[in-house]
Amino acid sequence: MFLGFQSDTGPLARLVVKHVRDAFVSEAKIDAEWRSLGYTARPDLARAIDQYDAFVAAIRQLAPEVEIDFLEADGTTTLDSLYPRDAAIATSKGMVLCNMGKPARAGEPAAEGQLFSQADIPVCGAISGAGHIEGGDVAWIDEHTLAVGRGYRTNEEGIRQLRALLGDAAEIVRVPMPHYRGPGDVFHLMSILSPIDRDLALVYSPLMVVPFREILLERGIGLVEVPDEEFDSMGCNVLAVAPRKCVMIDGNPVTRRRLEEAGCEVVAIDGSEICSKGAGGPTCLTRPILRQCEDVAGTGTARSAGTPQPAA
Ligand SMILES: NC(=O)NCCC[C@H](N)C(=O)O
């Protein structure tokens, strides 16, 4: 049986990112877009570049062999393209291109699709028409189970199309999301859930529906709770680079201590320009493409999107 890359916690072998230099592009572009996109303050480009370089270094510190594909600057996307997780979903059948719930982000899936095609990363389909889904609403909780948040960015039609695309490759668990701060806010499933290992997830339970929390517990996933005072500082948005090896935003000391007590190695980055102002944490900054397999025979081979699944 394989964990495969239908995982949000296996050792990262390959990922797609967009350097902030190529997402923010220029001072003029920042000036033109930050308010209308809902950023809390104007990002400082020079500081953002330094922070982004440190973020990539943190990933490489925990996963020295990781292969990183960088999206290029393009004329069809906004500052929000800094957060490539949201534009695609990784599955054993190939990548699924999303259809963004935030209209200003409409150009991002095609831009990622172009990179996938240049880099020979298979794409198995796209969400389209009235269907909306964003990758931040989607998380693997085991190799066959995909949790999908049904909120303001992801609708029923998007989930229906995703189900049809995946067929028996995955069971989709639909997770109703609360209204919380309303449609203008950035509030994804991964705002309240970060998978950390096969048996561990970081959660913010006050905004999680009971049936989903129970599903996590029934599947043997232990929960590390983010305290109230660290929710707005994105304490709950933590990237697992490998099982129990993670990158988080600094300024969340209680969450960090709880993760370390659960056996995690944690690298914290300064996210004041690249995370806080645009409301996207380390998981949002990355689109994992390939995570190394775990298999009971111990061959430990990695498979790319679209590689046929061995029989369980
Ligand atoms: N998965 C995520 O939570 N992504 C963060 C996206 C932030 C971006 N400013 C947005 O509004 O979509």
TrEMBL record:
Its EC number is 3.5.3.6. GO terms for molecular function: arginine deiminase activity. Pfam families: DDAH_eukar. Pathway: Amino-acid degradation; L-arginine degradation via ADI pathway; carbamoyl phosphate from L-arginine: step 1/2. It catalyses: L-arginine + H2O = L-citrulline + NH4(+). GO terms for biological process: L-arginine deiminase pathway. It is an enzyme of class 3 (hydrolase). This is arginine deiminase. It comes from Kaustia mangrovi. The lineage of its organism: Bacteria, Pseudomonadati, Pseudomonadota, Alphaproteobacteria, Hyphomicrobiales.
